[in-house]
Specification:
Helix content is 32%, strand content 26%. It is α/β, with parallel strands linked by helices and 229 residues long. The protein has a single domain, classed as 3-Layer(aba) Sandwich (Rossmann fold), CATH 3.40.50.300.
Length: 229
Amino acid sequence: MDLRQVVKVYRSIGGEVTALDGIDLQVRQGEFVVLQGRSGSGKTTLVNCTTGLDRCTAGEIVVAGTRVHELGPERASRWRRRNVGVVFQSFELLPTLTALENVMLPMDFAGSFSHVHQSRRALELLDAVEIAEHAKKVPAALSGGQQQRLAIARAMANDPPILVADEPTGSLDSATAEAVLKVFDRLVDAGKTVLMVTHDPDVAAHASRTLTIADGRLLSPMAPGVPHA
């Protein structure tokens, strides 16, 4: 993951707001990077630009070999399905689908597995986050921690090399948050790259590197001198 002089400017009738101001960031494969900062510092904008959910105004973003800053919305969506798993604080689960069906859905969109394989893989992922026994339940029947584990399983559906999480423990109590973070630890141990946005300093204990962003600028060293993901 390689970001070079990334700028994001939002324009409105009231004027321009610079959300990202010359961001340089490199993240290597298998690294667990935590991005901290106050509300409005640019954390979520950085995540959105990195994953192609938003487009930067200037600069370069290369993730998993793809020049994300050059992708339009449709191409970015297709690329994201296979290369980046995104986990949100609000879970973003489909309420009418079971846990199993929520995990199968990204595979169906990507056309990456047969239906039988989709079901088998979804069960394996639910088991990996320790909620396989809840496979037939809808999200409303799960606790907050279980829903976040489900969201992680769904993000891993197409086996992306990179996971990006925006405040994934923000709405959880401390014990549940710790359990969810251990899921991310296991994914990193398995070779996945994790970029996590948080305001919680306790989360940093799980990271291999912690960065701070303020007013759209990184205040911490941008990179270890190693190859990038």
